[in-house]
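User: Predict the structure for this protein chain, please.
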Amino acid sequence: MTDAKSFSTEIAAVIARSANAKVTVCGDFCLDAYWFIDQNTKELSLETGLPIHQVRRAAYSPGGAGNVVMNLRSLGVAEVRAVGVLGCDIFGDELLRSLSAAGVNVSGFLRPEKWQTLVYAKPYADGAELNRLDFGAFNEFPAALEDALMANLETAAKASDVVVINQQIAALMVTERLIKKINALAARLPKVLFIVDSRDYAQHFAGVALKINTREAARVLGSPTHPGAVVSQAEAFGYATALSKRMGRPVVLTRGEHGLVTADGDAVFAVPGIQLLGKTDPVGAGDTVVAAIAAALGGGSPLTVAAKFANLAAAITVRKVQATGTVSVAEVLAAEAPDYIYEPELADSPRAAKYLPDTEIEVIREKARQGSIQYAIFDHDGTISTLRQGWEKIMEPMMLQAILGDQAARVPDQVYKKVVAEVKTFIDKTTGIQTLAQMKGLVGLVREHGFVPAGQILDEHGYKAIYNEALLEMVRVRIRKIERGELAPNDFEIKGARQFLESLHRAGVKLFLASGTDEADVQAEARVMGYADLFTGGIRGAVGDLKVEAKRVVLERIINSGGITGDDLAVIGDGPVELREGSKRGAFCLGIASNELCRYGLDLTKRARLIRAGADLVVPDFSQYKRILPLLGVSA
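Assistant: Here is the predicted structure, written as structure tokens:
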């Protein structure tokens, strides 16, 4: 199981060990400069007559190898040394000041007179990044400077457990000539782990560990891929294994949103990507990965544990928009067990589905079962009931109106379409969580877009009230038709759901209903539908507290009751939240990819969502419940 307690214990142990690591970072130290231009000020230069770009705010942070160093310090590594070259300019002064203030040993820096500090200057206007300005691309690296750098590197390496070589700028400082000297130094210091993160020259290193992305790995191995190409997990395993055998050292292969793969000889390990809500910014994520790997390995953690740690750290970094990301010990310790993304390639390829013979039961992962399940937790809306079918068509326009406010009818089409796409993506990613949590996310979107004056922005409770009123009116109409006999409960049931519930109930399985809908509402709707009495474990829903997630509460109550294993428990739902929570705890996860409009048949969007969330089986409905029951150890 990957429950919150075991996860936090493992992460805390990694951090505690990492504090004792001694790490040196050598390479391209850069300064990232962020200049935020105010587009509302209109002024022309008296000298040229050209528009003046007025910078309202400027921010500076160490980038490149500097960001690796800052990540090491923020992750609690006490002893960090920096070896590199800075210019005798104001940018070099700022970079040196930042690193010194962070407690980095900067005695390994050289500052030749003709060197220009490497700077990535990033102007922003109206939230968009403009053309970047780069400094330092024309520096020259003479042999005397190279010798002095290597002397400093050897001194630092002898006092370290790990040395990170970070190369960002092609043909500048980390040259093929210097690489030969680094390889020789690594061979002379076999007890020191050298980890190389090189954009352009990884193929020239030997006897070192590599942190490398899939594109770079494919190029190094002579099979370059085009930008945007999807590399399968099988291919990633092959790349990592081949590189590890070539280097004789471990390899960490980053796969973007698909996570990490590590290889140490023939031993290969995959860490899935992590589901992230909201906007992300990948700047600095690779630096966080290599820093976390160095910290963990330097502290004595196993490679597989180091990879999980690095994956988590990078997931925190990418949430920091318009900044060179670092992650702190406090942020890592506060993180919950990740919502991993499982089987992304299968999720995106219905053609690759494998079914039980003569069924519509898709097998994602085969699980050996011992005995019958004792407990089953069901989601409600879209899993059993369709009383709330169409909720997205109510939430989407409501969110659009909340974000755009009085500007809804006046914004340009391009802006309107962008907001629509953002809202659709947000709803898709948050399906199944508490409505209140979705509305809290909406508050963030309203503030971010800035169409509504701050004083007119509601809190999550205010927006929920607006949404709930529109949704409940639709639900009330349907309930009244049931009460008048114009429609029957089974007109709002996923096909076969009642028979499935009754079969489990007769078999002695204790049933629970857990929903993101308000508790009073889901209880009332279950009574109207006529199956409330089957849920002898109780019916739980949202209680107006973001800290209380009904699905998690029910799972934890069952697990904590004592002696419960994954074989005893099934989680059944059409949303990712319940399946992720079940998967973390080793439960058998049955995904219901229901077409709510028809009440039977497969919804491909749901299928993909459920596979990514950790489903073991995916079915379109319960019409083949007699074939599903034996898979749970229950007689049909």
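The chain has a mean pLDDT of 91.
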